[in-house]
Amino acid sequence: MAGRARRPRLSIVIPAPADVASLEETLVSVLEKRPVDAEVIVALGCPYDDPWGIADEVTFVRAPVGSSLVACVNVGVAASRAEVVHILAAGWRATVGWTDGPLARFDDAALAAVVPLTVAADDHARPLAAGIRCTRGGRRIEAAPGRAASPPHGPVLEAGFWRAEFLRRAGPGFTTACGDACADADMAVALARGGGRVDVDETSRVVAGPARPAQSPFLAGLRAERLFWRSLAGQSLPVALAAHALEVLRHALARAPLGTLPALAGRCLAVLQFGSYLPRYRRLHDLLRAAREAAAPDDPPTIRIDGPHSALPRPRASQPQATPLRRSA
Q1: Using one digit for the tens of pLDDT, what is the confidence trace for 227-277?
Q2: What distance in Å separates the CA atoms of residue 143 and residue 266, rounded to the nearest whole number?
Q3: Cis previous bond, 257, omega within 30
Q4: What is the pTM of this model?
Q5: What does the radius of gyration of the chain's CA atoms come to, in whole angstroms?
Q6: How far apart are CA 190 and CA 166, in angstroms?
Q7: How many whole angstroms separate alpha carbon 253 and alpha carbon 213?
Q8: Domains and CATH numbers, the chain
Q9: What's the per-residue H, E or C state across 109-121?
């Protein structure tokens, strides 16, 4: 009991919404390579009877059966106790020393998240991605690895290191409104508004798991549109709307011909839900204000006056000079 009471340095959260075989593959990789001062939490969205008897090494928490990846992540994060939370979804695998670099970086109080490199299963030296980016128009894209690539806005939902304090400030967990497809981009927006720095650690490598299930065109349009309206706070409205119009056009063409109308229908439904975005708008503004206050100097500059200035002498009135009169001859 005394060991459980001590707060660990790292919480490793393994969300497992459905696939038991993928869960055990991830568990083996984590338990073989985990650091000493770390707790392992498995958030189950499916039945699991612990056939290996590892309940003394792993904390199992249950989400409702059939929960999404996002819901399982939130249940696992809520049960974590460490100041740094690492999410590694079932089906993804750890590599040797994958937590060392990120944990050292979190000594910097301004750091909110660390992105590990996603590598191929057949070649751990071949990076595939380094987090995600979110465009002004509301599109989530995977960030390419490499020093020449644009820096990511945040980690992918399946694999990332987070400061627990920031996750608490950003909101009640990752949103389910944007689905598994865009929840990480939604949190990346909160990172940007809150002034939290995101680093990529190339020494930290995780093996990519199975690809995400394909979304229907309707759900893809619905969730992408929700992501855009939830990210408006802190942006220039005309610029964002122009970028969004181009993104809607791109998305419609990409889904052509059969998926265009369902995708646009999903976007229209998301626009009709405008009132549901107001709490998010206020929260992002709170994060913006807190970030600006933190960036401002502690003491505003003051002007000090040690003593009164000496009074200026009053100007002398000019005396008219007398002009001598000449007596004419």
Answers
A1: 999 999 989 999 999 999 999 999 999 999 999 999 999 999 999 998 999
A2: 26
A3: yes
A4: 0.86
A5: 29
A6: 9
A7: 21
A8: 8-215 (3.90.550.10)
A9: CCEEEEEEEEEEC
